[in-house]
Amino acid sequence: MLHYFKKHSRPFFSWHLLLVGLLVLNTSCNDAKKKDTAVTAVTTPTKKPNILILLTDQWRAQATGYAGDPNVKTPNLDRLASESINFTNAVSGTPVCTPFRAALLTGQLPLTTGVFMNDVQLNPDALSMAEIFSEYDYHTGYIGKWHLDGHGRLQNVPPGERRQGFEFWNGNECTHDYNHSVYYDNDNPERKIWEQYDTFDQTDAALHYINDRKAIEDPFLMIVSYGTPHGPYHTAPKSYRDRFNPEDIKLRPNVPEKSQKRAKKELSGYYAHITAIDDMIGKITQQLKDDGQWDNTIILFTSDHGDLLGSHGELKKQQPYDESIRVPMLLKLPANKKIAPSINKTVVNSEDILPTLLGLTNIAIPSTIEGTDFSPSILNNEELDNAALIRSIQPFGSWNRNRGGREYRGLRTPRYTYTRDLNGPWLLFDNQEDPYQETNLIGNEKYATIQSELDTQLTQRLKANKDEFLPGPEYVKKWGYTVDKTGTVPYTE
Fold first, then answer.
1. Entry pTM
2. Burial of residue 401 (number of CB atoms within 10 Å: 0-12, 13-18, 19+)
């Protein structure tokens, strides 16, 4: 444990939790043998659960069978949903790849880590998910897309602190060449290529990892990070692409006529990627059941952000519309929690995932973490009428200023979406009455009270987080990033 106090200047635990943990150590024979590990909160004598995070890239919440999408069948995810808590209002607070991943691993906000754009490096000294769980005897592994190192998208993330505590490694920084996909195998610095469509090979690597640990007493934390269904959309195996005819795609009502032809074409490929992932999730869940590990494994299925795909006449992410910010989130709990599957409308944000997993495994939450632990409400089968912060700190890339990008801060509640840009109130949607967000209610007299209340709440939340809501270049300068004329951090392969 001493190396943690040397590495992290802020205290890992509050003193009262430390004292509780010390009492547990003094009264437990098992814990007395592990005085050199991190101090735990009170735990039951049952085996610690495995944790498997199935992370996808650019999968919007609406695009599953269980969510009612008429275009795609996802039988394996539908089955998982029937055995899980389905968080229908889960959001990606900074809806773009690298910021989500930093929030997932640290439980911190983007203005704390400085990770508010793609292709910047998460501080190797940040206290990460893998480091925390490894102190509690978890084996840790990572497979697939990383996108947190900022040293070139095809370059190795070398063993050590830049892997943020993950031991097993079959990862790549970032690639979207899914049929010629780079990865690095543990300590081997040689660049390797997955032999097949990488979703298939990454799944096989996960199956081997899971199988190798079925007879090991200590639990595992594994992240399987797929690069799909992010574009390029038409690169899934032909057998999957052939299932989707663009002409048959049913569009969301908020796709304007000018965008419909392209949207149908792109969605046909998008759904092909999704169908392939669904098949792979079926393989993983079946192996957990066959190996006898299902009942003692927490499974979290989610995505780093969504994809507009023609809605509102826009593509990709970063924007505050639901197609961009809302992500699928299924949480399958161990059998001993005895929590019935349910639909939960609590709004869960990116930085809330780590503290919630810690809460569900009875691990004390480090003081560095800024997200909310929702485990008490989960275990009590409660829904919260809460609000999640959403933001664009520096517009860049596909949504740079030349393409209409802007800074914003906002709130997503179970019912409303409210955002403010640098000029003042920008968007207000009543998602209950207007689920496709086609009517902006800013200035609407009927919603004046709601707008005022949400604006006040937003101001309070920003103040609490010490977010001054400055123009993006101010934060770029503060963190010393070099950007091009579009405000994007250039990257190399």
1. 0.91
2. middle
